[in-house]
Structure formats: C-alpha cells, structure tokens
Amino acid sequence: MKRSTEEISKALEAFPKMDLEDIRNFFGAAVPSRVCKRDFVEQLGAFIVDRPAEWLGRMPERDLHLLSTLVKAGPDVPVEVDYPDYPSVLETVRLLSSDNSDPEIQRLWISKELYDVVAPHLADALEAGEKDGSFELDRAILGYLNLYGALPAAHMRVVMQDYWEYTGRGRYRDFLRRFEEAPAAKLCRYIIDGEEYFVAPGISDPESLVLRQEENAEKIDDFPAYSVQEVLEAGSEAPFFTFRLGSPQGQALLGLLHDLGYNDAESRRDAHDIWMTSQMVEEGDTTEAIFASVNRVQDEIESFDFYNEAMQVIADYANILPKWLLMGHCPDEVHMMKVVLRSDSGQLERIVKENPTMGLFVPAAPLYAPCPCGSGLSYKFCHGKYMN
User: Fold this and answer.
1) pTM for this entry
2) Of 1, 82, 340, 356, which alpha carbon lies 20 to 30 A from 265's?
3) What are the pLDDT digits (tens) for 320-365?
4) Residue 388: its pLDDT value, please?
5) How are beta strands 97-99 and 106-109 bridged, if at all?
6) Exposed, middle or buried, 162 (CB in 10 Å: 0-12/13-18/19+)?
7) Strands 106-109 and 79-81, how do they pair?
8) Among 34, 71, 41, which residue's Cα sits nearest to residue 56?
9) pLDDT in tens, 242-288
10) For 54-109, where are the E strands, in sequence order?
C-alpha cells in the first residue's frame, strides 16, 4: 500500500493547509493541525489508504454510487458522464482523475492505487448507508435546499424536525447530532453576513441569492410548506434532481421528450436542466436555455404548431416548479417570474409558411441584429420574440 499512499499524498499536496484541514474534518481523520504541511499530507494520505471503511462511511451517497460505477469499469478506465451542476467530493479533493476537454461529456476514472483501496469496502458502505438511514437523511437535506434555495440555519433545523417526526427514529437530540454530521449538511453550510445558512449545492453565489430572497420577501409570503414525501423526491438522484414529474405538467413533459426521441435517462436529465435553468430567470430575462430540449432536435421538427405546443409544455412545467428567488414558491402560485411565450406570432408564421426553406429554428442573436433566418426583421421581432 506504500505506492497508494504516495499517489494519494501527491494529489493532496496541491491544497493549502487550510483546505487540507477541511478535507481532514470531512473524512474524519485524526490528524493534528500543529504539524508541518508535509507531515499533515503524509498522515492524511495514510489515513485514506489504511482506513477506507471509516471515511467511505462519511461520503455522500452520490460519491459512493459514482465510485461504484468507476470500480465496475476498472482501474484507469475512463467512464463518460454528463457534467453535473456541482462536482463530487472525490473530484474536489482530486482523488478521481478527469478529462474535461469535451464540453459535452466529462470523462472520469479511478486510479489503480485508489481502486485497490476502496474496491473491497464499497459494497458494505453502500449497504450501510441505506440501512442506517444516512442516505435518506442526505436526501431530506438536499430536498429542502433544492426546494427553498437557501435557508437560515434556525429555519433549516425547524423543517428537519418535520423529517425527524416522519422517520420516528430515536431522540431529537441524537437526530440533530446526526444532521450536523451528515455529508450534505457539511457541504451546504455557509456563513453569510455573520449568519449561518444552508444553501443548495448547485448555487454558485449564495450571498447574492440570500440578498435577492430578502428583497422578494416583501412581495410574497414566507417559505411554503412541503410534505416529507415531496422533500425526498426533490432530494433524490443527486446530482440530477427532478421534481413533480408525476404531475399532469410533468407527465406531459415526459411524453413530449419521448416524442422528441429522448430515452428515460435523457428525459430525466432534461427535466432537471429545466428546473435548474429556470431558477434564476426573472421577467425580461432570456428563457432560451430552458427550451434546449426542443432546440437540440430542431431540424427534426417539421410542424410550426408542434413547435409551439412543445414550447408551451416546457413553459407549463417550469411554472409549477419551486423557485429559489421566490423562497420555494412556484411562479404559478404567486404569479411572479413566470416563463411566458408570446402569442403575437402572425408575422413569423406567415414568413415560415410562405418560405419553408428559411426554417423555423435559428441560433440566438443580439436583439436588434438581423434575424439569422433571413426574414429581414430584427431578431427581437422575428424568432427572438418567442422568448420573454
């Protein structure tokens, strides 16, 4: 195992001492702070190699499933995965190798050294996480944060009490201790303006989100209530979360994506992207990215009417999803920040019907630039007017 320790320590050497202490705390290693960086790295690397069962038990469910996929592929064998909204812990601490040269597909693999360390213990860690409730606890934490975006720590502990009552597991004091030590709680905890918050993992600027939530709090009621079942739905399948796919709007979306040729996994990923992409869209913002599922296969859509229907299905689904800027409310509930399709399509429809070779689907352009379709109109008054 000496070579494994050397390889893992080499990956850790790139981190400053402060980051190494955070890694130590997350992995649960008993490495003293008052040693030089070189000794710190050696001791932390030795812990990772010698005690995998211990630190694997502290990993998020998402990391363990990712490890399982890479272990099944074998050491040093790249596996193609979709880019997530946020990296795994093991990617962040550079224990996994990656190739990000392709903007569409990420390639990940596990080194022979780490493979030898984790492979014998991975199945036990996955089984334990399900049996002892650790995975479900993380799903609940992530679910609340995916629904609300950001929550003050005091409010987070209040909603987690609802989950504790739902599970009926042990004393509340013991549950709170488990909550504080849960991987998702550790990863999503922030200090913003001197106050403790928990923030959804896909949010890159927590301070800005909290500020904008406070601005909108004057216009809407407090955080809405969600059932524990809804919370667990919103926190499952990390990192590609989905919500309300069982609703009429969600079923219509899945039916549309199937008609467009997407398989089940691709459909769930696109549903996730619609939710995440629509989060920060406000009135006046472009909503083009929300409709990527349609634009991606634009050359295969022949009917103008079907295109309009498809866009409306996606807009309807986006408008029933909780928005972080609305403190977890849905646009349809509070009539704010809705994705709306413009209906004044007569001029564009006439152009398309008179000259089908121009095509309905064009790339985005500056609002007042000539529309790429060749109509002679500005993009704002041609293809661009379908997006608010």
Assistant:
1) 0.86
2) 340
3) 999 999 999 999 999 888 887 765 445 545 544 454 434 444 566 6
4) 39
5) antiparallel
6) middle
7) antiparallel
8) 71
9) 999 999 999 999 999 999 999 999 999 999 999 998 886 655 455 67
10) 79-81, 97-99, 106-109
Q: Which of 39, 19, 43 is nearest to 30 (CA)?
A: 43
Name the residue among 278, 22, 326, 273 with its Cα closest to residue 150: 326
User: How many CA atoms lie within 13 Å of 277's alpha carbon, on the beta-carbon side?
Assistant: 20
Task: Please give the single-letter amino acid code of residue 41.
Answer: V
Q: Residue 317 corresponds to which tokens in the numbers above?
A: 């689904």
Which residues of the chain, if any, have pLDDT below 50?
A: 284, 344-345, 348, 351-353, 355-361, 387-388
Residue with tokens 């106050």: 195
Token pair for 289: 């990215």
Quickly list DSSP for 150-201: EEEHHHHHHHHHHHHHHHT-S-HHHHHHHHHHSHHHHHTEEEETTEEEEE-T
354 contacts: CB under 8 Å, gap ≥ 6: none
Strand segments (E) across the chain = 79-81, 97-99, 106-109, 150-152, 189-192, 195-199
Which residues, other chains included, contact 51 with Cβ-Cβ below 8 Å and sequence gap of 6+? 29
pLDDT at 387: 47
Amino acid identity of residue 327, one-letter, is M
